[in-house]
Amino acid sequence: MAKSLIEELPRIVSEGRREAAQILERLSSGTQIGLQTNELVLPSKDVSGLFKGSSPQIPNAFNMAGGNGEWMNRLIYGDNLLAMQALLAGDAQTGLFSLRGKVDLIYIDPPFDSKADYRTKISLPGTDIQQKPTVIEQFAYADTWEEGTISYLKMIYPRLTLMREMLSSFGSLFVHIDWHIGHYMKVILDDIFGKEKFRNEIVWQYSGWNKKLKNSFEKRHDVILYYSLDDEGHKFNSYFEQWESEEEYIKRRKQKAYTDENGRKYVMSDAGNGNRVRRYVDEAMKDGVVVDDVWNLDKLNNSAKENVGYATQKPEVLLERIIKASSNEGDLVCDFFGGSGTTAAVAERLGRRWITCDIGKPASLVMRKRFIDQEVKPFLYQSIGDYQKEAFRNNKRYKHVGDLSQVVLGLYGALPFTPEQANDRNFGYIKGTRTLVMVDSPNRLTTAATIRRAVEAKASLLGGDWEKVVVLGWNFAFDISQAIQKYQDSNVEVLVIPPDLLDKLAKKGYKKLIDDKSVRFSSLQYLVAKPLVVKQQGEQDEIDVELENYVLLSPDNIPLDDKDKEKLQQVLECDPLSLIEYWSIDPDYDGVTFRSTWQDYRENVDNDNDPLHCVYKTRLRVAHKDQRRVCIKAVDVFGFESQVVESV
């Protein structure tokens, strides 16, 4: 008989403590995870197809916008367990010191419904399709709910422990949760922070639709658990809100109202020893109403201006109340389940610094567009360097990754090396040829370092007499196209492993896939731009940039159902540029850091009133240079990134 959840709690706590201790020990020993900067985003969205600004004169990409060493807000794509390790370690490249004990406020809204549909709706001209999660996301979600609530609590325990390490002595943590998991979460938080550090159980009550109830009262509230490290010294600003009207004040006081000879309303209040005095309503309302721990705030309306189309988006007024109450201007606010980016958006508006993170590519795209639309301060868009080197190190789901590499080799038509030939199970070869094959793991990004490793193996493995090396990858770093160009003389080919391969293996089995030859490996997507047109106008250069085409990898290698693959194929044939979700330009690319100086994206209707297309042509006026490199980056609706670099 399976153990109950209460019986499993000691094991959950023990394993969580051990995992967190191992992480902190690795950090103290110098084994660190780094952050890779995808973009330095200088928000300047297109409004007319013409950019009249100037190219930022930045000798160092992080010496910018106000002086040396200034704080940079950060949007991080990747597993928050890894992101927090990187932030605790510090990031020397971008001038970030360790954030241990430096964070003033953390708010998280972790997913808490094991039956949630994590597909993303994508609207394209003439049709809608449903994108499944990426391979990395699929593994993460599967791990989170493999054993139901037990897996969820095992996932969250080490993460909450790292959050405690990041909080300052005056810092606070707010955990947003609902009825699925809330009571167990309270037990876990009490264990990590101490029961005495608990401040409030905040009830967020929202309106809903009346409906016939079958077996329970309608569920119309979430819970936010509030903890702080310091009993007395934590930051808390007494929070008052203005009364909506004199009528509301009188109603809440539950007293009879009177009107004096001047038309002013008042109520009679006790003044001690039985005395009664007039209390004028207009004066009393100036103090505002004290906010208690039951918050009556509506959920986000679909037609609200702040709505970015993200399923679990929270209203800004909710985060505004938390941020105002538990932080001051200039404080650092973090959200490690970023979702739609509401925490960071509100923190920016209220003058706080921020870091937000999400493992979902769709969430990262939504947040980046939201921040640009809000015209936030310049921020870094980062991912985990060598993405999954440390990921899920002790996770049993990945103990057979080596075997999976052998499966992929076989499906590609390659043979594995014997242990005597090579001890790396990720390498194989095509029989009868001098072609080397390398299979990357599904829980990591294929990066420039991966390509370099493959090229080095081509030159050294078994004497190095290989004519070609093929790299098979699942997930790719933002700059993979540049890496391929860099090693183009080394005869290296990079192909995509179908993201639904694991599903196919589960349904059909390896032998069936070999027999029907249904697994196809395709090349990466790429962007085509027309030749740049540059005209010098006095001390400025006018640069005309225009996209010509976007070539996507085969629909078979997109995580879609068959019917949606057919829809996608039709869009590819008639309107391929419509697949571009976002594109941006660095007019003075230094070859290291992409500085997103101009950008346009779908849903930006300030230029063409077309929410399903970007503009595909722009003119940049920037300071004159005799020589420059212009980098154009595009991200498609599935999160795949491509770059084109032109020298002028």
Q: What order do the helices and strands come in, and which of them pair?
A:
Layout: H1 5-28, E1 35-41, E2 50-51, E3 73-77, H2 80-89, E4 103-108, E5 120-124, E6 127-131, H3 135-145, H4 149-166, E7 167-177, H5 182-193, E8 198-205, E9 221-228, E10 240-241, H6 246-253, E11 258-259, E12 265-270, E13 276-280, H7 281-284, E14 289-290, E15 294-296, H8 316-326, E16 332-335, H9 342-349, E17 353-358, H10 361-374, E18 379-384, H11 401-412, E19 415-416, E20 427-429, E21 435-439, E22 445-446, H12 448-460, E23 468-473, E24 475-476, H13 480-486, E25 492-496, H14 501-508, H15 510-516, E26 522-523, E27 526-529, E28 533-537, E29 540-551, H16 562-574, E30 580-586, E31 595-596, E32 598-601, E33 617-623, E34 629-636, E35 641-647
Helix pairs in contact: 1-4, 2-4, 4-5, 8-9
